């Protein structure tokens, strides 16, 4: 499996708007086993996205899906930056 | 929902052993919607655990479950430390 853990920063005061955009059009993403969009409970502008995919190729392919492209386009103006980006190899748990 | 994103460090050279212990006895954890155990792809000693629970209370209750207590006891000697611990509020995605 292939995993990602990333933290992005919303433009000041616009996190809820960004969270709504990110979670509105999740739709079908082949090979996606987990895709969690979450607000940081302590940092008012931080959003965490944690992902598990069957393979890195599945993740790459998802970025070309029309609904994912549309979401990225809508979200981009509300993203102030990216704090951390970790690549992982999920091994187990409740997935 | 209640979420956690944490990074722990395995004792040097013993990450695979620790990963095996952590993922061996997952069992039933009421209220657990996602519990991903993953190796950091670039840092040889780092393990990431990302969790989504129906509530913070469900997460707290899980720590008293016998199989969770047993896992913690087995894992503790192989844990060198904890790097990061983020509390989140999951809002959507593929969970």
TrEMBL record, chains A, B:
Its EC number is 1.-.-.-. One of its GO terms (molecular function) is monooxygenase activity. Keywords: Monooxygenase, Oxidoreductase. It is an enzyme of class 1 (oxidoreductase). InterPro entries: ABM_dom, Dimeric_a/b-barrel. Residues 2-87 form the ABM domain. Pfam families: ABM. This is Quinol monooxygenase.
């Amino acid at each position: 499996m292939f995993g990602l853990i990333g933290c992005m920063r919303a433009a000041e005061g616009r996190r809820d708007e960004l969270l709504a955009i990110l979670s509105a059009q999740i739709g079908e993403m082949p090979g996606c086993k987990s895709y969690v969009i979450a607000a940081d409970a302590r940092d008012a502008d931080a959003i965490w996205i944690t992902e598990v995919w069957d393979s890195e190729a599945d993740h790459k392919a998802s970025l070309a899906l029309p609904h994912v492209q549309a979401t990225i386009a809508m979200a981009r103006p509300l993203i102030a930056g990216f704090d951390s980006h970790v690549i992982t190899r999920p091994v187990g748990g409740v997935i």
